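Reviewers of the previous submission asked for a worked example of the structure-prediction workflow described in the proposal, so we include one complete record here. The input consisted solely of the amino acid sequence. No template or homolog information was supplied to the procedure at any stage.
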Amino acid sequence: MVEAIPDGAALSRHPLWREDIAQVLSADLPWGDLDGQTILVAGANGFLPAAMVETLLALALRSAPCLKVIALVRSRENALRRFAAHLGHPALSIKLADVSQPFDVDGPVDMIVHAASQASPRFYGVDPVGTALPNIVGTHNLLELARRKGASRFLYLSSSEVYGAFNSRREPIGESDFGALDPATLRACYAESKRMGETLCIGYGAQHDIDCVIARPFHTYGPGMRLDDGRVFADFVRDIVEGRDIVLSSDGSAERAFCYLPDATRAFFTLLLKGEKSRAYNVGNSRAVVSIRDLATMLAGLYPEKGLSARFAPPQKGYIASAVARSAPDTARLEKLGWRPQTGVEEGFRRTIEIYSDVFETRSLGASA
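From that input alone, the workflow returned the following structure tokens.
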């Protein structure tokens, strides 16, 4: 059985992941604006922000020698593991802090990326308070840091869950479309706190002139995600890597827009460098909407030599299902800034599975040596 967390050094050095980072940096963006900047990435150990950190470190070596990156993390051990290939990088410093508690940072901070949040459904039922606080208190603390430091840009990674559930089929979802969200439920700890985080960003923009931009990621997958994070697509990848049939705990009819991590990372940098102040932007691949059932069938068929199939089983105890039947973004606002998704579902998941297969095989060989 493979472990849930990939080896950071093996991931960072994998040729396919290096190709992905290079693809992000090939985007037509004003990357030069980041040279000489100190960028704080809060929650840097996480799936989405870690990719941003690695992109910034690659940029520093390529064309921005005066760029500095502060990786703000709660666990130094996890940071040393995730960024093991970069610990000697001159641009990288690791800062230990919980954004939900008072903290400060020495020296300048020019830009802040707030991605410190528990995003997995497996936390919603067991740690709803710990899920909500980083998005409310943590957002306040980071916005205060931005105000004290005179930061030029604050990028808040929110979530597509802020849209809630619609009574009728709505497609696609635009930034002004909102459905029902019952605050008196455990699962609401994530979506409601993300909503409040957005409101704080808008409030600080109006009251303290903080230049905030909001990203609302839809379902994002790719190298670096935990394979036990509670989301079905991560479970599916782990099943394929381990050579095991995919087991669905629902009828699989829910439809989601799946965005490959490098596409999402390009979107985040597009917003950091070109997004409009106090505006929210959907981040997702509207061209890659697929049902969970069809995704499972497709992934099981990617490697016919494994003889895998997709089947159904009762749901696991403790999982809190989403009430949203279909979630597909309208990304016209983001695309006006020049962004387009480049990777389809089959290609993205194949790359993810190949990277994980190699990374976990490398770990297994190292352990047996």
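DSSP finds twelve helices and 13 strands in the chain. We consider this example representative of the routine output the project will generate in years two and three.
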